[in-house]
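Quick one, T. Sequence first:
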Amino acid sequence: MKIDLHSHTTFSDGRLTPAELIQRAQTMQVDVLAITDHDTIYGLADAHAEASKHYPALTLIDGVEISTRWHSFEIHIVGLNIDTADPVLQRFLAEQQQKREERAVKIADKLAKCGFVGTLERARRYAGVGQITRAHFARVLVDNFQVPTLEKAFKLYLGKGKRAAVKAEWPDIAAAVKVIQQAGGRAVLAHPIHYDMSTKWLRRLIGEFSASGGDAAEVVFPGMNADKQAFLQSIVAEHELLASAGSDFHFPGRWTELGRCQLKSDTLTPVWHDWHLSVRQSSLKDPV
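Structure tokens:
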């Protein structure tokens, strides 16, 4: 069984529409897919419609990726198997979206001072119906201002501590965990190895996430070597968290293809181990 519990659509910073993402999942023979757009659930209805019509064998998990603030870091918490009709969750995400809008205006102002004029309007066009993210501004810099790559856009302007970086007033981790669980979901610490922090801070992050009531952590994802994977899995096991896996898919590519990252562990319990009790299909009874 091929499971991918972290993916994005054009409703946040992904390049594929929800329908196109479902089609990609079918092409890549993904059996279980979670769509986890940044601070929004608006793309899920389109995804379910496409899956029901063209890929009924797919188990589609309703998800979201919530931005939080922990010390000086922006930490992402994925909510899996959430009730999208939960009114508290909907209000919470509306507040997140307003914070994204406010941050986008400030980023554009800072970029203008760097000589890049008109970035907000261009970023809005890239975002379309979705949330404006830093990735949209990065695309603007690459496509219109001779910045060579998306990575360079972050390294030179949009990344932490850079000239156009803006700290959003995100909620703390505990608030995100609470709203996810109130909506019937499981709270998952997203890509913990990808944060720019020392081993000491990583241990502290996972420990505090666990103490906040978090359910699971992603322990396999693109770009992580075997040593880092073993190290991360040992910390997750130490805190008795469940394990999740996902590609953090944004667009087809060499490193971030759907279904590429599969959980293989004899010691960790998958976050989906009992989902056959609540999801649309019963195909999740068997572990990976």
